[in-house]
Amino acid sequence: MRLELGTFFVKDIVFSEKTKWEGGVLSIDPKELQVLLNEDRKFEDVEVHLVRPGERTRIVHILDIVEPRIKVSGGSCVFPGLIGPPHSVGAGRTHRLAGVAVVETAEPIVGESTYWREAIVDMSGSAARYSCFSKNINLVLNFKPKKELLQRKTREEEVKDVLRGTPEAIEYNASIRLVGFKVASYLAEAAQNQEPDEVETYELTSVPPSLPKVIYFCQESWAYIYGDSPVRYKEFMPGLMATLIHPSEFMDGAVANSRTNLASNRNVTYVLQNHPVVKELYHRHGKDLNFAGIVIYRVGGTKMEEKERVTSYAAKLGQLLGAQGAILTWGGGGHFAVDLMLLCQKLERMGIASVIISPEMAKNVDESGFVDYVPEANAIVSVGNYEEEIHLPAMQKVVGGSKILETHYDAGGELIVPLRNICGATNRVGFERLTAVQY
Fold first, then answer.
1. Does residue 352 contact residue 318 with C-beta atoms inside 8 Å?
2. Which of the ends of the chain has fewer CB neighbours closer than 10 A, N or C?
3. pTM for the whole thing?
4. Which strand (E) or helix (H) includes residue 33?
5. How far apart are CA 223 and CA 272, in angstroms?
């Protein structure tokens, strides 16, 4: 399976009479874009904002971030199962627009939990360095829901998911994500038949048998995989078995974000499209290791028997693939850590050397920073402590909302917030730059 990724470096975005790519500039027809935005009747309105690096602008209430991409050859489409048939991807050529992103923002509706819902990106100032998304030219879509979604009364028993809210709220946010995928694909169409600035090739070629086989174990409990998710709008279905996926599928839109969780750890779709672990293993394939594939595993619910089942099956897949080394990532909060540590323990006992990439969560030096721990977890790479508080300077402009969720502070004013409110700050797969070192 050979994937060519053609990159177009975006110097600027302008609104024009026609959507096109020319000389490093992406022109967008606002009327054509608005037709696309108005296809879903759940929205009263969708505001469109262009936000550039260095501007004194703060983006709040972010749900997802998507890099514009389009399939050029190899069948299927970007985001298979979401905006097109769920046919296999990972082969042929895909074009991407680098340095630009589609950012979806929205106020929560009635019945939607605001717990860990806030996600902030400052485009300038001291806080901009905590999120790589401050370096993009961002096309921000600010969704305004129908009035009935804001006024509807919700009974407590309707809230099946305490983190995401009622089935109606879950479906509403899924609609927002779907529009984001469509807009990202639409923008990339402008460069579909153009010659890219750069082409990278990703292929798992044959390597010397002496190189150690390394498997990446990726915990993605709510992600869309070919458009499917373990959440059926009503309740989470735990205990789903782990599955194998080719690294090129992962990089070609087969996996996309479906949930609004802790902002600093959230694997927004942009991260999944440019997954740092997958890219690094590809770059080292044939040099000092044999990248033998990816195992995606779901969290095993809240019962230990479910966690034992999921992690035993995932570890068995690694053993069947002949893994000698493993890299493990996880959801980054709560009881998901139990699955992570169980899997690490089982792999190590099979003789598979394992390394964990993990955020920390410690409000003071007396806390361990981890929810769970096993003795076998003796190699951990930290991506930062998301309970650390930082200062955000006042901004001239705010996009996405007027108040910070939970605290209700002025979204444009000076703020003291934990890193968990900053989109991507302690990203659980190492997309950002924070770490911690034990002396």
1. yes
2. C
3. 0.95
4. helix 30-37
5. 10
